[in-house]
Specification:
The chain is an alpha/beta fold. It is built from 13 helices and 12 strands. The strands form 3 sheets. The protein has a 7-stranded mixed beta sheet with strand order 2-8-7-6-5-3-4, sandwiched between helices. The chain has a 3-stranded antiparallel beta sheet with strand order 9-12-11, with helices on one face. Strands 1-10 form a two-stranded parallel sheet. The structure holds pyridoxal-5'-phosphate.
């Protein structure tokens, strides 16, 4: 009998794991399934980047191991992007690291920073890689519940002092998945100050920084003076360029933090495929032009989605960024049961709030992955699903 480690047993099943199987069964049965589950937009990657990838594939040098150094040009393009986008200069060779998607960098980080008995503070609901990295590395996770009343902000001064004394790492993610919350600069400033005072590393997950709406521009954590002492910021090409499956991102921080992450990764992987790095450099060098159509499409979807939700009887705040609608459910409606019902009976994939941890209960997440027309249809179905679900629940209770 195989014995599964205590660490692995402590992790719940990954929330997206069972959906593809159910979806396939429904499609085979002839159901018109609309998938608003994973944050995986249906827009294609930019043609220029695909062309660059084809060219890169033809060069045999790109078929070699990339190691952690990777393509110097990718590092330089990432540094140029940061300089243009935020006005911050980083040394591409020592303060930046190519990642096989930002997920692995986020999850690997605690292996290099946290010893057993020490604490990683992470938000809930939140991206599951934080919990995975904390638990698998042997750290003690402290799960901080994000609540609407506080703008879904993780406030370190509300963590018990005895826990903070043992905390080595905190994850923050704004624009946020799944709540779509954004972080005011004064909040980031007080959090950086607290981390500096306590010697806590701040992992700032900025995967959605370019997917912003109306007049909002998302900051970098390095906009905060002193952040370079403690912060490591994670960027992803997945969402901004519709390149989720390519697996490419990067981390940026002071040289010792980057060296630590690079050392961990050198034992676990050999860097992103060089051809993808070469194409990724093309994407980053033209980011402003290439991201705009994807961003604008998401904004149209956001507007259509918010309007359709209001018509269908849901109430949701209009998000300023990311690609999600975080929708409250009526009191007493369990999110996992409702989203399962909506999928099985109405063919709409959404994610239950509880899939992002118990503190996500009471909500479900819609990803803006399909065009405005399909999204509106899906939300109409969700409205019908909720009416049926609550009627059945009331009848069952009677
Ligand atoms: C908050 C957040 N961070 C990071 C990622 C990972 O992105 P990547 O594809 O770069 O691994 C995601 C993907 O959904 C995310 O939602």
């Amino acid at each position: 009998m195989i014995r599964i480690s205590e660490r692995l047993r402590r992790l719940p099943g990954y929330p997206l794991a069972e959906i593809p199987g159910i979806k396939r069964r429904l499609i085979e049965a002839g159901v018109d399934v609309i998938d608003l589950g994973a944050g995986d937009n249906d827009t294609p990657p930019p043609g220029e980047v695909v062309a660059a990838m084809n060219e890169a594939l033809a060069d045999p040098a790109n078929s070699k191991y990339g190691f952690q150094l990777g393509h110097a040009e990718y590092r330089r393009a990432a540094a140029r992007y940061l300089a243009r986008r935020f006005g911050h200069e980083f040394d591409p060779m020592t303060e930046l690291l190519p990642l096989i998607g930002s997920k692995e960098g986020l999850a690997h980080l605690p292996f290099g920073l946290v010893d057993p008995g020490e604490v990683v503070v992470l938000p809930e609901p939140g991206y599951q890689a934080y919990l995975g990295g904390a638990v698998l590395s042997g750290a003690e996770p402290f799960v901080y519940p994000l609540v609407a009343d506080n703008g879904f902000l993780l406030e370190l001064d509300r963590v018990p002092p005895a826990v903070l004394d043992r905390t080595r790492l905190v994850y923050l993610n704004y624009p946020n998945n799944p709540t779509a919350a954004i972080a005011p600069l004064d909040y980031l400033t007080r959090t950086v100050n607290e981390c500096r005072a306590r010697g806590i590393v701040l992992a700032y997950d900025n995967a959605y920084c370019d997917l912003t709406f109306d007049d909002y521009r998302a900051p970098s954590i390095f906009d905060v003076p002193g952040a370079r002492d403690v912060a490591v910021e994670f960027f992803s090409l997945s969402k901004s360029f519709s390149m989720t499956g390519w697996r490419i991102g990067f981390a940026v921080a002071n040289a010792p933090l980057i060296a630590a992450l690079s050392k961990i990764k050198s034992y676990l992987d050999t860097g992103p495929f060089l051809a993808i790095q070469q194409a990724g450099a093309v994407a980053l060098d033209q980011a402003e032009r290439l991201v705009e159509p994807i961003r604008a499409e998401l904004e149209r979807r956001r507007d259509a989605g918010v309007a359709a939700l209001a018509r269908a009887g849901f109430s949701v705040t209009t998000p300023k960024a990311a690609m999600y609608l975080w929708v409250p459910l009526p009191e007493g409606v369990a999110s996992a049961k409702f989203t399962r019902f909506a999928l099985e009976e109405h063919g709409v994939v959404t994610l239950p709030g509880s899939g992002f941890g118990p503190a996500g209960e009471g909500y479900f997440r819609i990803a803006l992955t399909v065009g405005a027309g399909r999204l509106t249809e899906a939300i109409e179905r969700l409205g019908t699903a909720l009416a049926e679900f609550t009627t059945r629940a009331t009848a069952g209770a009677a």
